[in-house]
Amino acid sequence: AERSEASGVAASDVSKRLKIGVYFATWWALNVVFNIYNKKVLNAYPYPWLTSTLSLAAGSLMMLISWATRIAETPKTDFEFWKTLFPVAVAHTIGHVAATVSMSKVAVSFTHIIKSGEPAFSVLVSRFLLGETFPASVYLSLLPIIGGCALAAVTELNFNMIGFMGAMISNLAFVFRNIFSKRGMKGKSVSGMNYYACLSILSLLILTPFAIAVEGPQLWAAGFQKALSEIGPQIVWWMAAQSVFYHLYNQVSYMSLDEISPLTFSIGNTMKRISVIVSSIIIFHTPVQPVNALGAAIAVLGTFLYSQAKQ
Ligand code: 3PG
Known about the structure:
Layout: H1 2-44, H2 48-68, H3 79-105, H4 108-115, H5 118-128, H6 136-154, H7 161-185, H8 192-214, H9 217-231, H10 234-257, H11 262-283, H12 290-310
Helix pairs in contact: 1-10, 1-11, 2-3, 2-8, 2-10, 3-7, 3-8, 4-7, 4-11, 5-7, 6-12, 8-10, 11-12
3-phosphoglyceric acid is lined by residues 96, 99-100, 115, 174, 269.
């Protein structure tokens, strides 16, 4: 009996790993598609505040329809739930719009190289704001992460300050989002999928007035006419694709966050960036210098060392 119990535990361990593996692969694939359409849209229609609002709107709409038609179970939420969700939504909104603004100014690969520095932000926030301490090896692993990102940034051919700062702000915001999310999801009956749906809805409400104030319908309409004349009606499909894929990849990432620690999440996220960096460089013919690529490689390697040090 002991043996079969042991093999039962091993089997459930294997199936859990398999499930997380499938989540991760799906998450990365959806994210690559999102990043490509997002950049195609931004190249032709550079209104990141609107496109990030549309991403949240598409997700909110898809989930409201899924609830109404009972494809997905409607979550049972109370005022307390939405109150705890509020800071998460603020962080999600800031991180999302900052990353999109960044990608409207620089190459997708550059935004993601800087975003591969997220674990460094996670350690610094945990250390200085939450008072958590880490072994020396964790701090040492930050050196290649920060050094690699810095090297990639200073050798970037199309460096742009807004692009750089957007990615940095996004890093900081998403560290808070992940810490608060995991806390908010703990012991709650709301699933990862529904948690992300509620997050989208709340973020949409927060972002909409700011998007109108920063860009506004007049610019959107004029820009749209221009994009339509340059690209043709398919610009609408690109916008739809970036919005739908944005929701899908985030939904899958939250389904996996439900099962893993914020640390594993962060590592999975950095590994995801490798596929985004490589595929976007190929698709958009982004010029890269060897030393620039070296910086990115060192940063990603640093994240791997960080994950080893943290375990
Ligand atoms: C966004 O628009 O929110 C960013 O592209 C997402 O960044 P992520 O790769 O950290 O999810």
